[in-house]
Design brief:
The chain is of the alpha/beta class. 27% of the residues lie in helices and 18% in strands. The longest helix is centred in the first third of the chain and has 22 residues. The radius of gyration is 27 Å and the shape is globular.
């Protein structure tokens, strides 16, 4: 096929047009780099222009004809579907933790607080609105201490936890003094106590888990010590505690220790914590402690503060029977002994145990009839899998003092050091060379993103979600004290690399995007989706995934899609009806690459009907 240029009557083939277009775009970008000090292409670009490179015919080209797919053949003249706002009662809707549905499930072992997602016919196909008066959260670190009242207008905790210094209502904001049930004088002083025993400040402890986190003040104050904390709590009578955590800019998800394994890989966390989290640690043959042991890294620490620690001294203040508290502590001590944890500290209401670095010092338990080891290879098989009353075995070591699973460097060195799971060949198909190449690619991608959206490292985007995290290259390349990334490992991904992500000093979670995420609406400022829709093609409805993205994205938040062009055309068409403004951009290597980038901004609108659109 050929095209005639009306300016001079010359006939050009599509190939010629495409080559000229590529050169024009390439040298335009190269010239821009020169002005930024990145390249030396201005003079060459000018010379090409002088030689008559005719770029003004390019707008008539339809790119999808060059990389045709099922979507490319769709009728683009068809009017996109327009999604209506959900009713106002859904302003804080959490599909898989819906309160009304939860009450239909058994209460034993917290089953009713676990994930219970709607059936296909019960899913919402509307846009979850923001509450009237919603505003962009304060930038970090101010957001640690203040949350706009309109964003989460729930005052119950200000009354219920008044003497514990959790949260205070002041005018049009909530103030978070940094207190907690076990640290009413502030999280900083409490963390100082822990740091007398645990090496918190030198990078050895980087990833932490806070079970039953409240409003996540422990994780909020660990941030200044370069510790990244995954906090979780159920959606229960303490309305909005996880929502408050995320509004503060602290990593958190809705979750509970019930009957299902936690959605984290084995050997993930350097430290785990419970501060009056009300988890019955000694119950069910110590099943919950065994689950903490599974996700705790060899050499990691477990902290328990509050009942029943030092019950002899504290039982009167707790107003609980001595016999009951004594039995609780006895069970915890017995399970810790079975796990071969070493007690490092017990003072006041705080006890700290350390997990052994390997199994060599625990050989005696191999012959203990009470010890039931889990099957090898099942440590990371967690999605909707029942929690086991077995102990996760350590990986083998080559020497008596070796760290099971491999020793990690302190953070930030571990961010780009080769993770032990890759160095040992534990991740099939991922070599040291693959890892290093992936890092280079993502540094390049993120550099391009920052040119597209200059707000990325400005502090405007605090809570970031990577929906298909791979080896964590995006999170590593974008790493900054101003932001954090929730790295999601899709349960259908070909390779499970979430353990690698944790070994880099990052955090993440397993999830299936055919279901809703365990978070409140409007909790992420920026969402990144690389190859996600190609991965989920024919697995579930693209529309459902996009509506879920809309639910968890803040008004005026941004999305970066990176995928094949035919996939992105379909995505773009759907988002047109979602009150999103979008723009398709070429791959940074030029227009000939079939992978493209689609950037989007969610318009501001609320229950009250206020709307803004980005030009």
């Amino acid at each position: 096929m050929a095209l005639k240029n009306p300016a001079d009557g010359r006939t050009r083939s599509w190939v010629q047009i495409f080559i000229v277009f590529g050169l024009c775009c390439f040298f335009y970008i190269l010239g821009a780099w020169q002005r930024s000090g990145f390249g030396k292409g201005d003079s060459i670009a000018l010379e090409i222009t002088k030689q008559g490179a005719d770029c003004n015919i390019i707008p008539s080209l339809n790119f999808e004809t060059h990389h045709a797919g099922d979507v490319g053949n769709a009728d683009e003249s068809e009017k996109p579907k327009s999604f209506k706002p959900c009713p106002p009662r859904y302003v804080d809707y959490t599909p898989c933790q819906d309160q009304k549905r939860a009450m239909t499930f058994p209460r034993n072992n917290m089953i009713y607080r676990e994930r219970h997602c709607p059936r296909e016919e019960d899913k919402l196909h509307c846009l979850v609105p923001a509450p009237e008066g919603y505003v962009t959260p304060f930038p970090w670190p101010k957001s640690r201490d203040y949350v706009p009242y309109a964003n989460a207008p729930y005052k119950a905790l200000t009354v219920e936890k008044a003497i514990q210094n959790w949260i205070q209502y002041e005018g049009n904001v909530f103030r978070f003094p940094g207190g907690g049930t076990q640290f009413p004088q502030g999280a900083d002083k409490y963390i100082d106590q822990l740091a007398d025993v645990i090496p918190i400040t030198n990078g050895t402890v980087r990833t932490a888990l806070d079970t039953g986190c409240g409003v996540a003040s422990w994780g909020a104050y660990l941030w200044s010590r370069n510790v990244l904390t995954m906090s979780f709590a159920p959606r229960d009578s303490h309305e909005a505690q996880v929502q408050f955590a995320l509004e503060r800019g602290v990593p958190a998800v809705i979750g509970v220790l019930g009957t299902i394994k936690m959605p984290y890989p084995s050997r993930a966390f350097d430290m785990a914590h419970c501060s009056r989290c009300l988890i019955p640690w000694g119950a069910n043959d110590g099943m919950y402690l065994k689950e903490v042991d599974r996700v705790l890294r060899p050499g990691g620490y477990w902290i328990l503060s509050g009942p029943p620690i030092n019950w002899r001294i504290n039982y009167k203040a707790w107003q609980r029977p001595k016999e009951q508290l004594e039995e609780e502590q006895r069970k915890i001590e017995n399970v810790a002994k079975l796990l071969c944890w070493e007690k490092k500290h017990e003072k006041g209401e705080i006890a700290i145990w350390q997990k052994r670095v390997n199994d060599d010092s625990c050989r005696g338990r191999q012959d203990d009839s009470q010890v039931n080891f889990c099957k090898a290879g099942e440590a990371n098989d967690v999605w909707y899998k029942k929690m086991d009353e077995c102990i996760t075995p350590y990986p083998d070591v080559s020497s008596a003092g070796g760290v099971a699973g491999g020793e990690l460097k302190p953070f930030p060195e571990r961010l780009y050091d080769v993770p032990p799971r890759i160095a040992s060949g534990s991740v099939p198909g991922v070599s040291v060379e693959t890892f290093q190449e992936d890092n280079n690619i993502w540094k390049k991608h993120v550099s391009a993103y920052k040119k597209i959206n200059r707000l990325i490292d400005s502090g405007r985007y605090r809570n970031i979600l990577d929906m298909n995290a791979g080896l964590g290259g995006f999170a590593a390349a974008i790493d900054s004290p101003k932001l954090w990334v929730m790295n999601v490992m899709p349960t259908i991904a070909a390779k499970d690399t979430l353990g690698v992500i944790y070994e880099r000093g990052l955090i993440g979670i397993y999830h299936d995007w055919c279901e809703a995420f365990s978070t409140y609406p409007r909790t992420y400022d920026l969402i990144h989706a690389h190859g996600l829709f190609s991965l989920y093609k024919d697995k579930c409805n693209v529309e459902d995934i996009l509506l879920e993205m809309n639910r968890i994205l803040r008004p005026e938040g941004a999305v970066i899609f990176r995928d094949e062009v035919d996939v992105l055309i379909k995505v773009k068409k759907i988002t047109t009806g979602m009150r999103w403004d979008t723009k398709m951009i070429d791959h940074e290597d030029g227009p000939l690459v079939p992978e493209k980038v689609l950037v989007a901004v969610k318009q501001y609108w609320t229950v009250g009907g206020n709307t803004t659109s980005t030009p």
